[in-house]
Here is the input.
Amino acid sequence: MRLLGSLRAYYAGDIGAVDELATEGGGTPFQERVWAELRRIPVGTTISYGELAVRLGDKKATRAVGLANGRNPISVVVPCHRVIGADGSLTGYGGGVPRKKWLLAHEGVVLRESCAARQADLFSGGN
Here is the structure.
């Protein structure tokens, strides 16, 4: 029941409510390292896939980091939504980019105007 209560609190605005939940993603050792590093990204901030690879000690592992990020089975508790493209774009998210945008806004992330406008164009059918 603790998980459900923590998730309810998170969605009600207590963003830190999920921080202390224990996780077991069942991934490979590399995936587990990526997921542990995701939990170290502070609320209200984002990092790029490349920066995440650097934090893990291998700046060339950007693609592997992206793949591990995409296989994260506990997406709100292990905040993979806080990882964005190097240009600030909202790259893919298992729950859909609109949900990723919502989660980031819920956590107080302000997207750069040019990237936010490009994302809005994608959702409205513009170019």
Remarks:
- The two ends are 45 Å apart (CA to CA).
